[in-house]
Amino acid sequence: MNDATLAACIKACLDCAAACETCASACLGEANLDMMRDCVRLDRDCADACRLAATFMQRGSDRIAEACALCLATCRACAAECGKHKAEHCQACARACAACADACAAMAA
């Protein structure tokens, strides 16, 4: 892995974590909270997985591949769930999750 790939993945993870937190907060304000429950749960899990992967990459952990594999799987699930909803915050989150999953795929290999 080269430094540019690593830096891009860290940025994608941190951007995704922020998008997930924004989405979760916005979903909690939606009129039909029951419909958004899975979205909020996945947003929170995804934000945590993204921060973990970014931290592991920043410190040069021996477990980067495992952290990125977890992040990849969580981002894919979150992108699928958020993609079901028409709200812009959900669509933005789905895009950030898809980009992060793509970035983590190389790191998890």
UniProtKB/TrEMBL annotation:
InterPro entries: Csp_YhjQ (IPR005560), YHJQ-like (IPR044543). This is Ferredoxin. PANTHER family: CYTOPLASMIC PROTEIN, CYTOPLASMIC PROTEIN-RELATED. It comes from the Bacteria.
